[in-house]
Amino acid sequence: MKRENTAAWIFVTAFFMLCIIPSVGMLFYHSQLAENRVLSEKPVLQTVEGAWNRDYFEELQTYVAEHFAFRAELVAADSMIKYKLFQTPCDDQVVVGKDGWLFFGETLADYAGVTLSDSELDQIVKKLSEVTDYIQSQGKQPLFVIVPNKNQIYSEYMPVRFGSKAQQNNLILLQERMSEAGVPYVDARRILLDQKDSDELYLHEDTHWNNTGARLVLNEIYRLYGLSDNYPLMGYTIEESHSPDLYNILFPQTQHCEAQRIYDDGKSYDYIGRLHSLDDITIRTQSADGNGKSILVYRDSFGRALIPYMGGTFDNAAFNRSTPYDLSLVADTDCDYVLIEIVERNLSDLGEIEIPIK
Predict the structure, then answer these.
(1) Which of 348, 354, 358 is nearest to 125 (CA)?
(2) Nearest C-alpha neighbor of 223 from the set 191, 261, 183
(3) Which helix (H) or strand (E) segment is 208 a member of?
(4) Is the same domain home to 230 and 345?
């Protein structure tokens, strides 16, 4: 009986110690969890006006929940267990697919089928026709490219519980209407589907295409512009250099890089002005090895992969990722071509473009 009591006391003591470690540990240990939000500050008993803070205990509860010791390590351990053992994400922004493929949760609606009505699709095409006419009236050549979501190209790696990819979706129906209306576009979906069995075109643990996928579509962009420039899809080296966004959502504390294909085309270019990152709202390049032409590109995060190649192709290139689109740049920028690139999940944004008043 005494031995059983001793074991019970040891169990209770161990359980109690485990419970208080996160709280007591706050006195000497500070968790550094990488999160895309501002964590709460330590609450005060009195406000700046000198009154008692009536929300003190509620704020204290929130503060402890966000700052308890070893929080980062526990969150990382929970994420890894769910990911490795149960193929389940700790964040609904990420879908854990087969063979290590990750997908963006916001693309599930497009994967399941059509989410825009006929009138909404018609309104987008009407707007794109107006944009086309406006760009042409400025003496420049317009072109649209809608980059398909990763699960539209690699649907075989989606979890079985989501079923098969829908045969019709917003992108397919919109491009049919664009063809009927004479809106110039690159059928990136067809190009990538045709090439996917010959080469990998998207990153496994990231939302975006890899450099090969970007170059493949860029070759078609140049062809439709009537340019002779062309990028080979072979001749790359592999570097563990890419920080994958979806993996980082699951494991924000982990230092992890995914393999990326690196091409060296032998074309140099320079950034005009100070560059912080390829996510800057405005980026300008110039090249002494250019083709004598210039281009203005409206782009999103998929356009990051295009910048180094277009920078070496054109004498001058301007890239803008502000939303809503600032079409006044068309008249203000000395360029021959205007490219509007957007990912499939955001294509409804195309209907919100405003045409400058002439």
Answers:
(1) 348
(2) 191
(3) none
(4) yes
The DSSP 8-state label assigned to residue 205 in this structure reads: S
**H-state helical runs in 104-261:** 108-112, 118-137, 150-153, 170-181, 188-195, 211-225, 245-250
Pairing of strands 141-147, 185-186: parallel
Based on the fold, state whether residues 148 and 274 are members of the same structural domain. yes
Which among 235, 145, 152 is positioned nearest to 183, based on CA atoms? 145
| The pLDDT value given to residue 82 | 62
End-to-end CA distance of the chain, in Å?
Answer: 93
If 0-12 CB within 10 Å is exposed, 13-18 middle and 19+ buried, where does residue 196 land?
middle
For residue 38, what is the DSSP state?
Answer: P
Number of independent structural domains in the chain: 2
For 58-79, what is each residue's pLDDT tens digit?
Answer: 776 776 666 555 555 556 666 6
C-alpha to C-alpha distance for 150 and 208, rounded to whole angstroms: 7
Contact 269, 286 (CB under 8 A): yes
pLDDT score, position 254: 79
Total-model pTM: 0.79
Cβ-contact 201, 236 below 8 angstroms: no
Query: Cα separation of 154 and 333, whole Å?
Result: 38
- Distance separating alpha carbons of residues 27 and 285, to the nearest angstrom: 50
Joined together, the tokens standing for residue 256 give 């992890």
pLDDT grade, residue 24 (50/70/90)? low
What residues make up the domain containing 31? 2-69
Q: Residue 91 falls within a domain, yes or no?
A: no
Report CA-CA distances (Å) from 273 to 158, 193, 270.
42, 38, 9
| Number of other residues whose CB lies within 10 A of the CB of residue 277 | 7
Residue 22: cis peptide before it, omega within 30 degrees of 0: no
Tell which residue, 112, 115, 105, has the closest CA to residue 174: 115
The amino acid sitting at 354 is: E
